[in-house]
Hints:
Helix content is 54%, strand content 9%. The chain has 365 residues and is of the alpha/beta class. It has a six-stranded mixed beta sheet, with helices on both faces. Strands 2-3 form a two-stranded antiparallel ribbon. Helix 14 crosses helix 15, helix 14 runs antiparallel to helix 16 and helix 16 (328-346) packs antiparallel against helix 17. The longest helix is centred in the C-terminal third of the chain and has 26 residues, at 278-303. Zinc ion binds next to helix 3.
Amino acid sequence: MPFSDFHGNADVVRSVREMLAHGRFPHAVILSGPQGSGKFTLAQMLAKTMNCLERPTSDGLPDFCGRCANCVRIAEADDLEGRFAEAVEARENLREADKRETRILVQTHPDVLIIPPDPPQMLVKVDQVRHFIGEIYYRPSEGRERVYIFSEADFMKEAANSLLKVLEEPPDFATIFLLTDNPSALLPTIRSRCMQVRLAPLSPPEVEDYLAEVRPEWKARERGLVARLCGGGLGRARSFDLPQYLAARQDALALLAPAMGARDHSELFKVTESYRAGADGKSKLDSTIRVLYSLLEDLLFVKSGTPEMVRNLDIQGELQRMAEQVEFDWIVNATQRLGELESGMRRNLLRSLALDAFATAVENG
Ligand SMILES: [Zn+2]
């Protein structure tokens, strides 16, 4: 899978390949961008290019062959979720004492190490960073460059401090990637020692093109809608559960209906009653809350005269009618109430009652 298969952010990709071509690739890079923008894919492509035995070029810039021994072995980690799950399972099967000492790492090539956040806290731990420090000063054995990919750069405090020492003076033959959707959460001292490369969210037409390739079985209308709803991330777009989204939106619209002048509340109560205790009820409520936010935001777009920003494209007419029923202040107020509902859920209030209270508050708001 050479660089021509990377979707979106063509300028960014060209500029990092140019740095490679001129031997000026930095030793420490923060690769940031929203979930699904291709941070890990790009880091893997760069790792392959740095170590490819064939060293092909395309458009006059370094590329990778995808077939040589190095490319093939690095590619075994392309499915990071799968490799990560295997590593976690392997740890689960260890004796208790060994379990505590074992950190999650993914390595399919001796010169490329992936350091994912360690469960259950999903933070990079100091032992993982120690392992990384323990091997970074060895020269590459089968490739030309040792590559370290922190796939989600959320560090425990001690881990971040240990990393800092390496970032001050990384060896010439090593490249460190810190992947994050929120670079400002990294310590300023880490940020200042890395070059920042930012992947922008993909535009809806870019996502639609991608979906036409990977989800040809979806209707064009569905692909267009998902391209708007996925927030510009390909991973999210590809695995988007549209029927589930539409069901959650049905509920969200029922919750807002009284505020839009509906007299009959029986539909509302039917909906809120269906939110039960337990994990199922929680994930159902989480998705309904997310949809409510997107509907309120769409109402704001319609009201402020930028309907082209609306994401729930298929119900644009209904959003138009809703927007005519309410004022700006109502939208602001409803967004605040939604925030309260969300934090109330963290305190484990009864879900159906909290949803009734939300619907009543926005009806009178
Ligand atoms: Zn190769």
